[in-house]
Amino acid sequence: MSGTSLDGVDAAMVRTDGIHVLELGRTDYRPYSPAERETLRSALGREDGSEVEAAADVVEAAHVELLSGFKDAELVGLHGQTTLHLPDEGRTRQIGDGRSLARALGVPVTWDFRSEDMRHGGQGAPLAPFYHFALARMLEISEPVAFLNIGGVANLTWLDPLREAPETPGACLAFDTGPGIAPINDLCQVRLNAPLDKDGGLTSAGNVDPAILKRLLEHQRYFSRTPPKSLDRNSFSGWLSEVDACSPEDAAATLAAGVAKAIAVALTHCPNVPTRVLVSGGGRKNHGLMALVSDALDCPVLPIEEVGMDGDMLEAQAFAYLAARVRSGLPTSAPGTTGAAKPVCGGTVSEP
User: Fold this and answer.
1) Of 51, 57, 227, 266, which residue has the fewest beta carbons closer than 10 angstroms?
2) Cβ atoms within 10 A of the Cβ of 173, count?
């Protein structure tokens, strides 16, 4: 998994039959260098061209380097790096070629998870909800629960683990809530020449500007739209200019408050209030942001480590799980998770 925060590549082993999560194995991480990160940034918002080709070279080399250490893998799930995602226009681009990865690793690679879903009218994202459902079953959760991933973009899965399967009507509702840590990361890059707000120190030190916060939330009709729905990383890039006049601390706090309020609005779209919200992704390490999210919601908000999971590796595990589902011809998305017309098995398997 190489996500919208552009920090690096996560890899995780899962033993699964495509239905149950039987065992979670070892994990590893390969950070992008500052130069590689800039190459990836230059490709954002593009479908093709020299910038995209250069970024694809970076992504593929990093994946091969990391995955070469997983000698016992029987199947690889490749998410790729999203450079463009405009589902309402029927356009999406994830760089990283599963065919070349399969040749380099000598094992089958499942990839291109989004295209088939979008051909059936879906948003092509988010794709982790079916894994969240299997995880809730593994954790023996028996009440409605929400999984919140705060990466560059934030996305929410509300689920009822007592339903028969993740594609069963009423089992899963999933969608992007709005921006995650992308605006805060971009603020740190522009103002401080730093890739992120480490541990949320900047966010915690700032004061929220209520007038700017109101403008941030009024900007977008997206929040009131009925899900399923999904976003491009840069859909909320205009938020950065709104905090131009603020100190870095107040800017970070105000952006984080916008993220938290968007998540609170997202929960109003769910069938009922979940018993708890389990948070994964880099945003859970921003203590200031997590405090704002907790204040904004009417249920417990917990880092997913509280139930024994690794919040950095959940998305990578999800694509390992989805790879097995594709290999078995099982659905990977449904009307409740992406808005597709019917449950869809999305993905291509490339043999070495």
Assistant:
1) 57
2) 21
